[in-house]
Amino acid sequence: MIRKELRIILLSLGISLVLTIAKFVAYFVTHSVAILSDALESIINVVAGGFACYSIYLAGKPKDKNHPYGHGKVEFFSIGFEGAMIFFAGILILFKAGQYFVLKPELHDLNGGIWVITATSVANFLLGLYLVRSGKKLKSITLSGNGKHILTDAYSSVALVAALLIIRFTGFNWIDPAVSVVMGLLILLQGYRLMRQSISGLMDETDMQVVDRLSAILNEHRRTSWVDVHNMRVQQYGNNYHIDCHITLPYYLELSQAHDEVKAMEEIVNRELNGHEVEFFIHMDPCIPASCQFCLLSECPVRSHPFKQRITWTRENVLPNRKHTMED
């Protein structure tokens, strides 16, 4: 799988390099700061693609003594680096736009520039779509992040073509730096979002969508001996998840029986989260009399309270570090 990811990102890198050169040619022909803005953003595609190649290679290395959880965290560093580069490009674009408002250079051969940017926007759209779909299929946040960035580049190029057409038919050259300002602000926003995603991953911020998915899986395949699940923590390492949680089991189970229950939970989650490797660290808690009110064991030999209702597992009751109660 890693080799496939590397082939895809290398293809992206090669195409991005060709498209970046084409955009700079269009800038030198037209002297359009908006086209320059588009070309500067494309440089980021190339730099980010190169860094993504290394991060995918590193993320695919097996666990070792110094990295017991693997090397997958580098993917969050990768998208953070890409976000920082994009943010820097946005600042540079705004600076160049400000210069062009003052200098007001004459534009040349807009027809040629329009055709070049149109062709590059179509190529970027197809490439970005391919990367996003491949990232979802291979569960690679690096491919998905790179693809979303390239799609944004394609959309901004379409807006740029529209602006160049307006300039071509109206002669309003001030539109050129104005469009560049808008593009610069959008690029700043995109860079911020990628850096935010990177920080969230590196700081092990809980992904509530993953928690909801895990809760749904456990509810669907719940065994009667699983009294409750709590203190759940999810960490992502590239394509892998490390999950800590506590499971409450009947206190009278033998060690081998409790182990079988834990093993069953691991196998179910790994099967349902197809495409992800899930590592579980599960702490077993003994049930208490208060658990009887929602325990699903119909023939429990030590039940001290009648069953009242089933508690559905949600993020609200699987995340806190406490056993469930009827107040949950």
Record the SSE blueprint:
Blueprint: H1 2-30, H2 33-59, H3 74-103, H4 110-138, H5 141-170, H6 175-202, H7 208-220, E1 228-237, E2 240-249, H8 255-272, E3 277-286, H9 315-318
Parallel strand pairs: 2-3
Antiparallel strand pairs: 1-2
Helix pairs in contact: 1-2, 1-4, 2-3, 2-5, 2-6, 3-5, 3-6, 4-5, 5-6
What does this structure look like?
By secondary structure, the protein is mainly alpha-helical. 63% of the residues lie in helices and 9% in strands. It has nine helices and three strands.
Query: H/E element string?
Result: HHHHHHHEEHEH
Which regions have little confidence, pLDDT < 50, spanning 5+ residues? none
Adjacency order of strands in the biggest sheet: 1-2-3
What name goes with the CATH superfamily of the largest domain? Cation efflux protein transmembrane domain
CATH architecture verdict of the largest domain: Up-down Bundle
On the 0 to 100 scale, the average pLDDT is 82
Biggest sheet architecture: 3 strands, mixed
Global morphology: elongated
* Number of individual domains: 2
Outline of the structure:
By secondary structure, the protein is mainly alpha-helical.
Key terms:
mainly alpha, 2 domains, elongated
